[in-house]
Amino acid sequence: MSDRATHKPVIRIATAIAVSLMVTASACPTTDGNDPVDPGDQTPRPTSLSIVSGDSQQDTVGRLLAEDLVVELQDQFGNTMSGREIGFTTTAADGSVGSASVNTGSDGRAATTFTLGTESGNQQVMAAVTGTATVSATFTQQAVNDFAVAVRVNGGDGQQTVGGLSVSVSPSVAVEDQYGNGVPGMEVTFAVTGGAGSITDAVDTTDFNGVAAVGSWTIDVGANSLEATVTATGLGGNPVAFTATGVTSAFSIDVRYSDSSLVPSDTIKAAFDNAAARWEALVVGELANVSFNLSTGTCSGVWFPDFNETVDDVLIWVSVDSIDGAFGIQGQAGPCRIRVSNSLPVMGGMVFDVADLSRLQSRGQLEAVILHEMGHVLGFGTIWPLLNLLQNPASDTTGAPIVDTYFSGSAAIAAFDSIGGTAYNLGQKVPVENDNTRFGTGSLNGHWRESVFGTELMTPQLNAATDELSIVTVASLEDMGYLVVLGSTDAFVWPAPPRAASSAGQVLMVDDMWLGPVYKVDSSGRITGVFRR
């Protein structure tokens, strides 16, 4: 066989391999690191608007800021963009920008001026590329008050309380500039100008909001007046006058101790007297007398002896007895006789567990518990259904669905609004406790809701050291028909601060309302009807 014949197959194989490689290369092209990459869309578009200068300036309200507000526009490649429209707007009610629409120059920048609005505080100017609001920048400027031109009453005028007590709201003034902004750092001196009252902390300096207040103002019976003078000349309204009226309470609470009870100590009796005096300073109106001629019996679970006399205005029988041992029911209270004319209590009972009394006293919690229970004798929670003031009462069946239980008296609603309740949006006002799984049936539907009122005295949980008797509670008594004054309530506000842990421990007012029958009586003490709950 010749060499030529021998090599022909080799040539054909090599040729086939070459063709195969060419086909493969054509079907599956490859690139190396030197091949160009598809650049995609290279059209410049605005992606970044940044502040160049003019941010964080401070000046007096109503004035033109010294420095222009300047922004710079860049595209996605970091290059500045010219000829693009930038819109400038402000949130300041009466602030203004010099030019609301500015095109960027050759350097990609646009600028405007800003005149501050007349309200002190932070004011903002927003810059944005027209048609692309997401490409934006925000300037924040600080407007400070102008000089003081006037002073006015801020709060605490025209109050009424029992003579010898302090008004609930300390009189205060507001020093303002020409636009009504508060002016801080102004010295104010308070002085009694009428009546035999007295004040504490007579000199104060206006705070950030331009407000200064006297420490406290104790007034006398009759007309009282107070004057606040700002140490400055030329102020309109200076000095500012306040008035208050001191009244004499015609309401009395008579506390008596059941002969069958364990006789309390003088210290414990003093706690009852103090609680009665506190309620007498809040409820001031005389109630109709009721004459009784009763044989030995019980009142709200408290035994009383033969009784033949006239009651003016409320008589409370007190017993210290055994209920259920320590840490259970601390006490129970409520009315047993109410007037047929207005359904207001004339006689009631309060029983305290002897197993809890000494502990409450040693921990400084007894007086708050007594004050709370005495409120139930006056009708707080206990006669609300009779007066149609309790709406959507919660079921007394454990595990039942919870409804929005609330107190519907107009005075209490207004009082709740006055301490911040206008922002309450979790249901109807005023919210009442509806969780009997925690506090028991005897506390259901008769206390302010713990989750809303927290540290208020008439919730079903007490701390004693920090709990406050609020204007809402006293206003609820007005809704019930009492004549009240709001001048000696505590300075409770809503939302209440979280209940702080107490070294003495919390007091759960479990089943603390007497739920037995309440008898309606006429002026001679004769029973005319019964209210059953």
Structural commentary:
It is a single chain. With 533 residues, the chain is α+β, with helices and mostly antiparallel strands. It has 3 domains: 46-144, Immunoglobulin-like (Sandwich); 150-247, Immunoglobulins (Immunoglobulin-like, Sandwich); 253-531, no CATH class. It is built from 8 helices and 34 strands. The chain has a 6-stranded mixed sheet. Strands 2-10-9-4-6 form a 5-stranded mixed sheet, with no helix packed on it. Helix 2 packs across helix 4 (366-377) and helix 5 (410-418) runs antiparallel to helix 8. The relative contact order is 0.09.
Q: Which characteristics define this entry?
A:
533 residues, Immunoglobulin-like, six-stranded mixed beta sheet, 8 helices, 32% strand, elongated
Distance between the termini: 128 Å
How many strand units? Answer: 34
Query: What's the arrangement of strands in the largest beta sheet?
Result: 21-26-28-27-33-34
- Estimate the mean pLDDT confidence: 88
Indicate the radius of gyration in whole angstroms.
Answer: 39 Å
- What percent of the residues sit in helical stretches (DSSP H or I)? 10-25%
Continuous helix count: 8
Strand content: 25-35%
Report low-confidence residues grouped into runs of 5 or more. 1-37
The overall number of domains is 3
* Largest beta-sheet details: 6 strands, mixed
Globular, elongated, flat, extended or rod-shaped: what is the shape? elongated
Structural class: alpha+beta
